[in-house]
Amino acid sequence: MLDVLLVAFLIYQGYLLVVGTRAVNVLRGIVVFAGVWMMSQLLGLTTLNYLLGRAGTVGLFALVVLFQPELRAALERVGRPRGREGSQGGAALQDLARAMERLAERKTGALIAIERRTPLGEYAATGVTLDAVVSAPFLEALFARNAPLHDGGVILQGSRVVAAGCLFPLQSSDGTYRRYGTRHRAAIGLSELTDAVVLVVSEERGSMRIALAGRLGPDLNGSELREQLRALVYDRADLTGILPAPVAPPPPEAGLEVRGEADGPAGSPPHERGSA
Ligand SMILES: Nc1ncnc2c1ncn2[C@@H]1O[C@H](COP(=O)(O)OP(=O)(O)OP(=O)(O)O)[C@@H](O)[C@H]1O
């Protein structure tokens, strides 16, 4: 009984580690691969079985190399003391929300990604490495107009700012979010490829929004932002119930109309209208 319970617990913990990360797709691939391998064994397809067996052995090593950052982060998480993280995280949340509110009041654009399970090291490497405690004045200073690092995104790991001026992957222009500017598309793009919670302050509208799992949420006020941050980042809740489903892509003519209307001077970048 103890053996079965321990194995079930380990499998569940393993599932929690990978759910919402890019490893989930790889896991699905492995399940399909294992299924085909077992079928080939059952049906006596010896050559296919031999080839898949060999590929599986090599694949195991390839997986360790491919997911080295995720494995390291998972082991670090297992060994991290819990109580300290909780109290520091709460203070960081308050400072982060306060900074977002002030940036939104002043209509200063901002883009902040909060790391969850998927390591954001490869995106942090595109900017300037920092190691600073999250504080409202520091975040405001980072995004202040003319500040050296105001362009690009900031990355937070727990209660620390680890990089600024980072380049995030842009959401592919597949229609749904085509009418948004690049700051919002970078937020959606990063949240599509990782499980990060990405916060955006719009320079044009002074609005605060959260992007998660490839979806952009509605405008938030300060208390809504705090509530969602607490649930998503510190309680590690899943987002599905919080963000609305993406809106249907606007027809091409409407999209052009919206851009022309919203953008003011010709040639300026497209901006969003209303909420997703
Ligand atoms: N790939 C990217 N990664 C990180 N930051 C980016 C990226 N692309 C653009 N940005 C940031 O977004 C800024 C441009 O925002 P833009 O006006 O195009 O977007 P927007 O979504 O309309 O936002 P806003 O409502 O604030 O104007 C850039 O100056 C830069 O700081």
UniProtKB/TrEMBL annotation:
Pfam families, from UniProt?
A: CdaA_N, DAC
Q: Which residues form the DAC domain?
A: 68-222
Q: What class of enzyme is it?
A: transferase
> According to its UniProt record, which reaction does this protein catalyse?
2 ATP = 3',3'-c-di-AMP + 2 diphosphate
Q: Name one GO biological process term.
A: cAMP biosynthetic process
A GO MF label: diadenylate cyclase activity
UniProt KW keywords: ATP-binding, Cell membrane, Membrane, Nucleotide-binding, Nucleotidyltransferase, Transferase, Transmembrane, Transmembrane helix
EC number, UniProt record: 2.7.7.85
Instruction: Identify the stretch(es) annotated as Disordered.
Output: 244-276
Q: Which PROSITE patterns match?
A: DAC
UniProt-listed PANTHER family: DIADENYLATE CYCLASE
Role: Catalyzes the condensation of 2 ATP molecules into cyclic di-AMP (c-di-AMP), a second messenger used to regulate differing processes in different bacteria.
Family to which this protein belongs: Belongs to the adenylate cyclase family. DacA/CdaA subfamily.
Q: How does it assemble?
A: Probably a homodimer.
| Protein name per UniProt | Diadenylate cyclase
Give the species this sequence originates from: Deinococcus phoenicis
Whichever gene encodes this chain, its name is: dacA
